[in-house]
Design goal:
Blueprint lengths: L19 E13 L3 E7 L4 E7 L5 H5 L6 E10 L14 E12 L16 H6 L1 H4 L3 H23 L3 E2 L17 E3 L7 E3 L5 H9 L4 E10 L10 E11 L3 H19 L3 E2 L6 E3 H8 L12 E3 L12 H8 L3 E7 L7 H13 L6 E8 L2 E5 L8 H11 L6 E7 L1 H19 L6 E2 L1 E5 L4 E3 L6 E3 L26 E6 L2 E8 L4 H10 L4 H7 L1 H7 L6 E4 L3 H8 L30 H6 L9
Parallel strand pairs: 3-5, 6-9, 11-18, 12-19
Antiparallel strand pairs: 1-2, 1-4, 2-3, 4-5, 7-8, 9-10, 10-24, 13-14, 14-17, 15-16, 15-17, 19-22, 20-21, 22-23, 23-24
Amino acid sequence: MKTYRTHTCSELNLKNNGDEVLLSGWINKKRDHGNLLFIDLRDNYGITQCVIDNKNSLFNKIEKIPLETVVKFKGKVVKREKNTVNKDLNTGEIEVKILNFEILGTSKELPLPVFSDQEYSEEIRLKYRFLDLRRAKIHKNINLRSRVISFIRKEMESLGFLEYQTPILTSSSPEGARDFLVPSRLNPGKFYALPQAPQQFKQLIMVSGFDKYFQIAPCFRDEDARADRSPGEFYQLDIEMSFVSQEEIFNVVENLLNKVFKKFSNKKIQNEKFPKIPYSESMLKYGTDKPDLRNPLEICDLTKIFTRNDVKFEIFKKLVREGSIVRAIITKNTNNKSRGFFDNIDKWAKEEGSSGLAYFTFEKENNKIIGKGPIGKFFSSEACQEIIKSSKAEIGDSIFFACGQQKDVEKLLSLARDKIAKELEIIDENAFAFCWIVDYPMYEIDDKSGKIKFSHNPFSMPQGDISKLNFDNPLDIKAYQYDIVCNGIELSSGAIRNHIPSLMYKLFSAAGYDNKSVDEKFSGMINALSYGAPPHGGIAPGVDRIIMLLANEKNIREVTMFPLNQNAQDLMMNAPSNVEDEQLKELNINIIKKK
């Protein structure tokens, strides 16, 4: 005999007509029609409409029950009238006539409404997260998260991967983001760190002779919050494989993500074989290494045009002579757009901190191509033809120019590309557009110090014949490093790992590390690689970001069960919190208060 329920709140249908049932759940909503009281009873699975008429002796008692009270209803399933069927509910063709009830859990006055998904302040939502999680949309998101993770596990196992757990208490990393430190009671004055990622451990698993590793891994980084990144902790699908090439890793990840996104979303996948875009090409065409390929707009370099004598736009010509570059975005068939459209884009660019975006439209007049717009008069017909040739523009298209230092131009036009596409409504919102960004440079120049530093992951394998690497020109060395991007969101970075200690010393030397400092900072890894390490590589797609895309959410907190707020605080559990002096004494820690 069932104590609390014979069915969940999503199970009952016309087949149950006439059955006597037990349902338990929360009172989601009440509608009093005078002679009839309708109650929507909600549980994890759905909603069932229950009804009682005012002739029933229980009517007054049930009428007074507050929303979100947990109740058990005994009742009889009855078929709804045709005009009252609710097609939005699995149980919409029936209702349950209440025969008896029992209150299982009382509820105080609610600090936020549960029966609707209306916007509410983040502070209230996170303080009462247990209530917020009852709301339909976020409840659905969290259940989606569970199903996706379960599906990923099964798929990884079907591909021959085994899940291994790596330590949560580890050593502090000298590279990457800030660590969360944990004091050691048994080793006074020393600290563990929570792992920023299982990077070194998963490589050690490969060195240990295991072949295909995966883990749904918690990672901890003391970083500021962003819409696509929660402060504190996040989860990633950590993958590592031995005896593999970059292409083999791509095949595994593409196979997995195609299956996940097809199963859990109705949106199309733009290219099931993900395009591979070299880093330098991505920075040129999109101004970023996180391009949204749903957006058809591309950036082109037009610096050489401004060395022509028949181009009279002296502001840009002077900047180009001083070392600036000029890049541009072509918009198709925009000659019918109002002056206001173009001026608004220019105004937006100035609000972003730039000097604006110069523009004109290509038109034909007396069999000559001309530029029509504020700066069109500064370009001869021949110059316009050369721009059309270089940019693949056509008559009726418009062009937006940006001039300045390369990094500034890339940043501005990356944002402008998205802004213009949204204004023109040319982004395909019903698609997932994946791509690989490949061929990252091993090194880059540090903006502040002017010195050479690693651009991505220092433990990556360089491309080419390792016996012929030119360390006199380290900026020319490319690495087997790659990012996977979807709809402008970076899901993961990965690499083929450097498994050769002698090569690792050379690579670190180019970035200013001597052998002694490498041994001190990376002793565990260097030592392990010295005992016969296989070629290996991996990647770690962010689980939270995958769910965010599938749930069509803009903020990662909408797919995280108990997230911290922007200040890395848990308002519900009051963390971080003060601890007793006795605990600090036991850990040999003294708190120094700021003056």
